[in-house]
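TA notes. Do not distribute before section.
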Amino acid sequence: MASLQPVPHLTVEDEDDWIVSFALGAPGAGRLTLTRAPRLEFMVQPERRGVSVDCDRDQRAALLVAVKWGAKNVDVVSTERRYCLDISRVDERILADALRVLGKMNFDQRFQLAGA
């Protein structure tokens, strides 16, 4: 199992694009961002549709495969890599908002969402 990366905070956007972005470690250490733009997906080939996963530390584009949400930890699995995140320091209201947006992102069941 990969070591847990601390998440001091996360941001959630629920506008035209849906975004859940985890800060990784100390400020400036990077972010893991999950993004879905449903209004633009008609322009993308069907096999490339879904939630994109972008990490400042990775070079390759990836799609979200699974999210396992626990009380203190989240596992995010992409087509390229697995991320194990410690969310114990994040406010409960923000975590609830993130789960709600993840549920919206999964309207077509393109990834597995467990523990929500």
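Switch to the second chain here.
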Amino acid sequence: MILLRFFAVRLPSLLALCHGFMTTPRRHCVLSILLNGSLGLLPVTLVATSQGGSVLFYVVILASLAALAYLPPPPAANLQGYRTLAVCVSVTLLAMLASQAAHHFASGFGSEFERAARLVLGILLVLAALLRLNDRSLRYPILGFGVAAWVAAITVALLAWKAGGRPETQEYNAVGYGNLLLLFGVLVTFSLAWRLTRHANAEATLKIFTAGAAFYGFVLTQTRTGWMAVPVFIMIGVALFAHKTSRRKAIMACVAALSIAVAVGASSTALRQRVEMGVVELRRCETAPLTDSSMCIRLQLWRTAWQMFSEQPLFGVGGGKPFAARLKAEEGHTVSRYVAENFGEAHSDPLYTLATTGIFGGIGLLFAYLTPAWIFFRRLARTRISQEYRTAAAMGLAFCLGFAIFGLTELMFRGMRTVSFYGVSVAWLLAASDSAATRCERPPLT
């Protein structure tokens, strides 16, 4: 009661004080620091904690609401040019609602709704807020990705040394953790075109060492499927850094970078052994499909998820408990007992989405990947705009395509914090690549 009386008496004066502060010229600086700082901390909390990413996501949302309330939009920088993006991203939320309604909101509605809502809010609301900030300030969150790369790389190295083999982190499994490490390294590498300090050479050296540490940590995780994205990242990097050279030189640079990456990967004895083991497991799956090995488990899950989608293609079977129940019902048929009792997902974002929310959910996921990727691709292709904006576009394209490729063989959106991270990061890179030139020349689809 004492606390209630205190707030009843003091709350009006506190609100007046906050309003007076937020209407001063300092509000732009304060909100800019809060938003950019939160964006930079998000990848750090993602790899260092299990819950911090979700907490920080809501901090970003609240800061975005404050920016929308107190900061005036600059000329032509609003969501009108992103109407197609808004519609496409919202399909995921609509598909989830349709699936839940078809199953009478039987189970898991709250978590499924929050997951879809985080994606929509993370992209659209945060984008609307970031477009009100100074575009040069939007480069500084990359520092957080660099810190996250070092934290994750050191964590993986220590775990690998203690375990004497493949490291397993508490925040993610080795595959998810390795994929994020690779993505952090790629973004830091691309940021060489951004100059954040007066010490250009020292900054570039630090970024190169950071990218190297991230790539080394990725190799230590012995992640096989993450290598599928490496050629795509290299081609994007060549397009970013070699746009003024001849096509022949660009192709040679791409081949050289790919050869170096393959050589580094092949130098890891543990990684080579895992690749060889994967081939042996695939052959074993042909004669014993219910074998509990890494590759056979994936094939069991993929086959069963596709079967669920084939049976209920419009709205799926429902996410969470309904999917797990269907897996248990398939025990001894399409999945082993071990898989039926220990897995409640499909080890693939597209297949899990199709199985749980049907064809509309699959289309929504595809839109979430490809709609922003198309915007980033168009901006990267514009060589007439400043290299700083093309850098953000290259980062965004690598980010979207990276998640799309990683998600083929791993449930990257397993946790809500990763969904939040994807949405907020896409919004950040859309805003960072949105220059006056791109607004004037924006194509109809964007």
